[in-house]
C-alpha cells in the first residue's frame, strides 16, 4: 500500500510531466506562428480541415495503443487545434491592419438582420475579411450588384432542409456570368417577434418572406385566424413591425434580428424540422482554382430536352467514373413545361482529368450544360442551440 512518501513521489513525477507538456505546447505554438507567416506570404488559407481530420485519426489510433480513449484524444486535440487556429487568425488580422488591406463587400438580400446578412457576416468572419454590406431587395439585385462591380461577393440561399431548393436562385444561376466560389451552412432559428409580449391568439397579422412561412407551415396552421403578409425579406418584415408600431402585428425573423430592431421574442425554433439549416453560396466574377488536397465540389446545371433516358445516362456516367453525386434537383423550364433543368453537385475537382473527361461526356448527351463553379466543400455544420 503506497505511503505518503510514495504519493509525494508520484505527484512530483506528474508535476514534471505537466511541466514538459507546457513546454511542448509553447514549442508547438512557436511553430504555429512560423507556419502562419508562411501561409500569409503564400496567400494560403489558415485552416485545412482535411489535414486536421487525418491528423486526429492518426492520434486516435496512437492513443488507443497507450490505452487512451478516442473521446479523450478528440477533446484534447480539438482544443489544441482551435487554439492554433485562433493564434494564426490573430496574426493574420494584425497583418491585415498593418498592410491596410481593402475590406470585402458582400451583396445579400437585406436589410441588416436577414439570414443572408448573417451568412455574409459569418463567411467574412471565418475568412478574416472585413464585411462591408450591400443590402438588396431581390435575389436578382444581389447578382447584379456583383456583375456591375458594386460588390465583391453575392450571398444567396440555395437550399433549406425544410423547404428544399430555392428555385428562384437556381433560375438566376442559369443566366448569370458569376461563379460559385464558396458555400456556408447557417442554422435558421425562426422566431415570432413583436413590439410587446402578447399572447399568440391576440396576434392579427404576421409578416415575413415566403420561405419562413413555408418552413414554419406546421406552426402557422395552428393559427388560421392570422392574416399572412409577404415581404421581400425577414429583415424587411421586422422593420415593418417597428414602423407600424402595432402591438397586434408580428414577424417571422431571426433572433439576431430581434436585437437589431428591438423586438420581443414570443416564440422560437418554429421550423417544421428541428435541424433547420440553409446552405448559402458565394458568387464572384472570377472562378477559383482549388488544390487537389482540399475536398471539393463542382456544381453544374443541364437540360436534356425531351430525350428519353438522358438523365439516366448522365447518372450512369457518374457511376462509371466513381464520382459521388452530392445533390440532384430538377425543375420545369419556364415557358416549356415538357422540359426539365437539373441542378447537380458532384464531389470532385474540375481541374482533375477524371472530372474533365466526365464533364465532356455529359456535355455530349445534354441539350444545355453550364458549369456554375468549383469550390471547397463546407465541412462545418451548425449545431442546433
Automatic annotation (TrEMBL):
Residues 1-92 form the Chorismate mutase domain. Residues 299-376 form the ACT domain. It catalyses: chorismate = prephenate; prephenate + H(+) = 3-phenylpyruvate + CO2 + H2O. One of its GO terms (biological process) is chorismate metabolic process. GO terms for molecular function: chorismate mutase activity; prephenate dehydratase activity. It holds the Pfam family PDT. The record marks 278 as: Essential for prephenate dehydratase activity. It is found in: Cytoplasm. Residues 105-285 form the Prephenate dehydratase domain. The keyword Lyase applies. One of its GO terms (cellular component) is cytoplasm. Keywords: Allosteric enzyme, Amino-acid biosynthesis, Aromatic amino acid biosynthesis, Coiled coil, Cytoplasm, Isomerase, Lyase, Multifunctional enzyme, Phenylalanine biosynthesis. Signal peptide: none annotated. Substrate binds at residues 11, 28, 39, 48, 52, 84, 88. Its EC number is 4.2.1.51, 5.4.99.5. Residues 14-41 form a coiled coil. Pathway: Metabolic intermediate biosynthesis; prephenate biosynthesis; prephenate from chorismate: step 1/1; Amino-acid biosynthesis; L-phenylalanine biosynthesis; phenylpyruvate from prephenate: step 1/1. NCBIfam families: CM_P_1. Catalyzes the Claisen rearrangement of chorismate to prephenate and the decarboxylation/dehydration of prephenate to phenylpyruvate. PANTHER family: PREPHENATE DEHYDRATASE P PROTEIN, PREPHENATE DEHYDRATASE-RELATED. This is Bifunctional chorismate mutase/prephenate dehydratase. The lineage of its organism: Bacteria, Pseudomonadati, Pseudomonadota, Gammaproteobacteria, Enterobacterales.
